[in-house]
Amino acid sequence: MFTQFFGNYLLERNLLTMVQLGEVLTQMKHVRARLGVLAIDAGYMTGEQVDYIHSLQRRQDKRFGELAIQEGYLDAAQLEELLANQSSSYLALSQVLVDSGCFTYDQLSHLLHEFKEQCNISDRDFEALKNDDLDAMVDAFLNLDPLEEKELCRAAFLSFVKNTFRFIESDFRFAQGQFGDQFSFHRLIYTTMSGDYDLCVGLAGDQAVFEQFSSRFSEGLGVADIDMHDSLGEFLNVTCGLFLASLSNQGIDLELQPPALCQEKALSNPQGLFSIPVHLPFGRIDFICSRGIPAITE
Fold first, then answer.
1. In terms of residue numbers, what domain contains 212?
2. Percent of the chain clearing pLDDT 70 (strictly above)
3. Angle at CA 121, nearest 5°, toward 204 and 112?
4. What is the helix (H) or strand (E) element at residue 228, kind and residue range?
5. Is residue 166 located within the same domain as residue 84?
6. Which CATH number characterizes residue 188's domain?
7. Alpha helices (H) along 254-298
8. Which of 96, 148, 171, 221 has the maximal Cβ count within 10 Å?
């Protein structure tokens, strides 16, 4: 998920094109991060120091780690730590960005610093992002204000994120949600829950994205010959089932209704509803959560 968040940051700043990012993502599958990128990521060396070690390697027949220790940038324990992390997949993005000539080590070092600063990412949140810590990422990147029922929506969204990571795709990102009283959609799969209070949870997207999403979920379950509606409905059942189990542990009991699919309409709820954009490699899905049952209008 680090790839999606950092890659999107570079796109939004016009530092990479979609074509360049696509090429980088393809190359990542065959790349392992080298010590320079590892040392920058760990904060042990600057990009300028990494470039200096590389310049020394052109004059001295020594490995990067040996020279970094020789110049006092690393000690033996730090070098051992970096080597142990060399297979980390998220670092492959940084390595390919340098190898492909998009950025120098120094530029990459500054960009990572700016990414954390401009996105208000703490060191703790950055570690969560690198390690795909979904609970911490939802807390760090999802701002549900001013929604009064944000804890409910957070729990429902976290269940969606975990199941998407488990069954659909591990490399995706989500953005800040929108709060309003209406949401128009092309396709919507949704379910309602009633009991101590009423809730509605749904997924909105276009036909092509729904087909990819449902196909991956069916394949993940090892189920063939299931149509898109049933597959999306089952994903929603699994997601909301886990969500309701967590509520039940808090003494809140809700009854889950069968999912329904509709198209080319809008949700309307005077109390407000929240939509959270989720960007997958094959397109965008919006996660919808509403306290109270919204009306479906033309």
1. 146-297
2. 94
3. 105
4. helix 228-248
5. no
6. 3.40.1550.10
7. none
8. 96
**Residue 147: pLDDT band with limits 50, 70, 90:** low
* Closest of 231, 240, 217 to residue 165, by C-alpha: 217
* 12-16, 119-123, 163-167, 195-199, range with the lowest pLDDT: 119-123
Instruction: Determine the Cα–Cα distance for residues 34 and 40; give it in Å rounded to an integer.
Output: 10
Nearest CA among 275, 266, 201 for reference residue 232: 201
Based on the domain organization, do 185 and 283 belong to the same domain? yes
Contact status, residue 35 vs residue 64, Cβ threshold 8 Å: yes
Could you identify the residue written with the tokens 């060191």? 123
Q: Cα-flanking dihedrals φ and ψ of residue 294, to 5°?
A: -70, 155
Residue type, 156: A
Pair (259, 150) in one structural domain: yes
One domain for residues 167 and 284: yes
Same domain, 10 and 114: yes
Largest CA distance in the chain: 73
Helices first, then strands: H and E counts in the chain: 13, 7
Average pLDDT, the chain: 86
Residue 183 to residue 175: CA distance in whole angstroms:
16
Q: Of 138, 161, 179, which closes a domain?
A: 138
Place of tokens 């749904």: 202
Nearest to 13 by CA among 140, 93, 103: 103
